[in-house]
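As the next step, I needed to go through one protein, both as residues and as discrete backbone shape codes, included below for the reader:
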Amino acid sequence: MKPLTLFALLIFLSAGTWVLTWSPMTVRKVQETYYKAIGPFLQSGSKIEKFSRDFVREVEHSENLQRKLEAIQADYGELKIIEGRFRELERENVQLNQALGFQKRTTFDVKAAKVIKRQPSTWWDTLTINQGEKSDIGTQLTVLAEGGLVGRVDQAFEDISNIILVTDESCQVSVYVEGSPEKGILSGEPGEYGTTPLLRLRYLSRNAAIQKGMKVFTTGRGGIFPPDIQVGTITEVIPGSYESEAMVKPSVDLQNLSVVFVLAGDDTVEQVEDPEP
């Protein structure tokens, strides 16, 4: 055995022997001193242990809350989707009711058709409907909606048709201004998606007795559009040196079209469109 180890063992045995010689009172005093010395540490340890238990419970509680929150958020997302669909159906229902009301009120023989396609790049030029030649729809037929004129059929296929809107530059309509002798040619103006373009009314007299708020109707010239269909309302009068012009707001909400009505061929007027009224 190494000398150092032997020396430590002798010290330990001596100390143990010396402790055994203590009286009971001395032992109790030593114990009291020991417990007083380590008491604060035991209390601190107890607090730390309690804090640890509380912390673990809080973490578990937070995790439960997080799971509940995630479940609530998922339910909220589903409810938003359902609400959005409900709003869409509600809007479609209102539009269909308006369309049915228009179909009952109109004196024309019309066929209802649903708008099935529109392109952002040609939003104010064309749209596609779900009726075609199988439904006796042909080219150049007038297309109406709640409020008045939408445009005309440009191409008719077996089950679908392409419609040129009144806001397209190529769609020209002979019109008159209600409450005045003024007549002119109405055509579309370039517009951007999301904003309704105005129509330009040309060939008015130099001192045209018209003003903002007057309504514009078709004359029936040209054999495409029947007479007395509302096209829009004047928003601005532009005087000129030789003739005046006016800007016209379409009477139909072309931005949100979902249902349109195509006039039967017998309702058109067989005349040749004059270049000027």
Notes: The first strand starts at residue 110 and ends at 117. The CA atoms of residues 156 and 227 lie 23 Å apart. The mean pLDDT is 78. DSSP finds two helices and twelve strands in the chain.
